[in-house]
Amino acid sequence: METIWLTIALMGGIGIIAAAVLYIVAKRFRVDEDERVLLIEEVLPGANCGACGYKGCHDFATACAAAESLDGMFCPGAGADGMKRIGEIAGLSVAETVRKVAVVACAGGCDERPLVRKYDGVLRCSIETVVGEGETSCPYGCLGWGDCVEACPYDAIHIDSETLLPVVDPSKCVGCGKCAKACPRGVIKLQDVPEPYGTVVYVACQNRDKGPLAMKACAVSCIGCGKCKKACGQEAITVDHFIASIDSSKCVRCGQCVEACPRHSIHEIQMPEGGKA
Amino acid sequence: MNRKIHPRTFAKGGIHPHDSKLTRDVAITQPVEPERVTVLLNQSIGAEPRLLVKAGDPVRKGQMIAEPGGYVSAALHSPVGGTVKSVTSVRDPYGYPSKAIEIIKEGDQEPAALEPLDFETATPAQIVERVAACGIVGLGGATFPTRVKLEPGKEYRPEYVIINGAECEPWLTCDDRLMREHASEVVSGARWLMRAVKVKKCYIGIEENKQEAIAAMTEAASHRSGVTVVPLKKKYPQGGEKQLIQAIIGRQVPSGSLPVYVGAIVDNVATAFAVCEAAEKGLPLTRRVVTVTGPDLANPGNFLTDIGTPVSALIEAAGGLPEDTGKVVAGGPMMGRAMSYLDTPTTKGMSGILVLPSRMSRRPDPQPCIRCGSCVEVCPMGLEPFLIAAQGEMRLWESTLHSGVMDCIECGSCMYTCPAARPLLDYIRLSKRESRKLK
């Protein structure tokens, strides 16, 4: 019987001492973490994509909490609404930012762009582009092995099984630009999405060859004919090096150029209302 | 005196592919005299040359048509006399657009030569200037401007000129033929180079599968002091700069350093020949020997080629493109690159055109790595190719740097020997490119 009492006393004693030590240590060596960091992290997407320029979401949250101004700090994942909430948490004002979306500047799928040779190396765009122009005779176009798909942290870009071209899901795309960086040919571009969200018009080609060459390489290539330029009432389109480009700040998304293009190389995508931004 | 000379070689790694030198006994000829040439503007490593001509200008043969665009850059000269038709954008052999000067051959073909230099009185500065003025670049394939090599900077003291006659790439024989037919010019070129960098000793390294070249060069060198021919064992990549230095003078170039750090200036035999032509005849670099070869070609050969001649014309001269051609490779089979277009022009760096039938050009499907270690055994730089490739595949660029990816000379021995046909070099090259961006 005595053994039992002794054991209880001993174990209880150790417990009390340990609790006291833990209490003192916790009080004395407490690290004050800014609770705003945790709140900000909840707003962030948690994908650690690095589009903000910081190492990850936690790093960005810490920087936001410590910052004196949120100018130049933007998380495309959280979008404008998210940044507004971060501003509220951090007690700072947030400048208006333009939402961006990734667009694929190549429309030459399997039916439009004939294969002229076989590539039997590693199935990665970054490797094929060094070997040569690829399996088609367009040295500017998409190679289709999906380096962009692997780079996307938001599952917003996929290779279409019929055209073998990447397709961006605008409801998931936050415009972080990882795919654009991963593409060795710069086929994927970030396009401004001006308010109010509606359509985004872009040139789905970047072939800078002269007309006949571009025509031979692909059925939907921009040949720099300039019909879109004439159709545009806003002078938003310029043609340089046999390729049209649209100034999104001038574009009113009337769709005239899309209809005027004889090569069907100007595309528009519908941005979802109230998407992430 | 019948002393047996033991051929030397480098210490680590290396492979022994079948040498397949079909054209070793075919003399150098010039079968194609093109009516028009297309000179690509970017033919060497470094800055893009600045154009000196425009469409409609008459040019003389050997006239400078583009000047160096920076210190590391090389001048271009017209290979023919005639008229500049246009300055335009053409496809390079790999399919990418590239600026080029099209010249139509007509009229006077007398070369616009510079004043020949006198060996006894020419100063090193004069020789270096001549090398630059004649647009000479490393003709082994790297196309590094030779004048930069000849001005190594005050902190380095060159001790040896090493002339690279290893020609370890299978199939290629252009250097072999040049040494056999123009031995004395190559040796003279070596002496000009020695004079330019003020050294007293020169070694000419030649692999022992080229006995005739060794004999011819030894004969030519016997009258000249300071030039020694060194027979080398047949082993790929003996012609790699660092391997050659180790084989001949027994010194190892440290990681990240240039050969001149250990006192060596290495130049290809074709470069030495070009230096001789530039110094003694005042002729700029406008032509080179190209080996056009392949197992099914009717008439393979070593063709003296004006730079800018279409590749297709050379293949035509070698008997035409055989049916069932799988790949046409610019350069040798180990380090060359498959061409996308055949109507593109030859360049200064194009030492060979290898026409491979499809049965020899197919890449086997890669299998998983079996950890046999063959790639580690054959790597002449002592790297672990399987590891770097795996890191590259996982995009761990920083780890590849720690694994020494920058020391890779891209010889391809690892991929050649891999029993699982892993695309090792593809991933190593990718890692090199991506790691460079990190710095």
- Order of strands, main sheet of chain B, comes to 1-14-13-17-15-16
Mean pLDDT of chain B: 93
Task: Tell the overall outline of chain A.
Answer: elongated
The level 1 CATH classification of the largest domain in chain A is Alpha Beta
Instruction: Give the oligomeric state.
Output: heterodimer
Structural class by SSE content of chain B: alpha/beta
Return the structural class of chain A.
alpha+beta
User: What is the CATH architecture assignment of one domain in chain B?
Assistant: 3-Layer(aba) Sandwich
Taking the sheet with the most strands of chain B, its summary is: 6 strands, mixed
CATH class of one domain in chain B: Alpha Beta
Strand count, sense and closure of the main sheet of chain A?
2 strands, antiparallel
Query: What Rg of chain A, in angstroms, do the CA atoms define?
Result: 27 Å
Q: Largest interface here, residues on each chain? A: A-B, 16 and 18 residues
| Fourth CATH level, the homologous superfamily of one domain in chain B | NADH-ubiquinone oxidoreductase 51kDa subunit
CA distance, first residue to last residue of chain B: 56 Å
Number of strands of chain A: 8
Order of helices and strands of chain A: HHHHEHHEEHEEHHEEHE
Describe what you observe in this structure.
- Chain A is of the alpha+beta class and 277 residues long.
- Chain A is 33% helix and 13% strand.
- Chain A folds into two domains: 35-90, Orthogonal Bundle (3-methyladenine DNA Glycosylase II, Chain A, domain 3), CATH 1.10.15; 99-270, 2-Layer Sandwich (Alpha-Beta Plaits), CATH 3.30.70.20.
- In chain A, the strands form four sheets. Chain A has a two-stranded antiparallel ribbon with strand order 1-4. A two-stranded antiparallel ribbon of chain A has the order 2-3. Chain A has a two-stranded antiparallel ribbon with strand order 5-8.
- In chain A, a hairpin with a 2-residue loop joins strand 6 (237-240) and strand 7 (243-246).
- Chain B has 439 residues and is an alpha/beta fold.
- In chain B, the strands form four sheets. A six-stranded mixed beta sheet of chain B has the order 1-14-13-17-15-16. A four-stranded antiparallel beta sheet of chain B has the order 2-8-7-4, with no helix packed on it. Chain B has a four-stranded parallel beta sheet with strand order 11-10-9-12, with helices on both faces.
- Chain B is built from 14 helices and 17 strands.
- Helices cover 28% and strands 20% of the residues of chain B.
- The interface between A and B is medium-sized, with 16 and 18 residues.
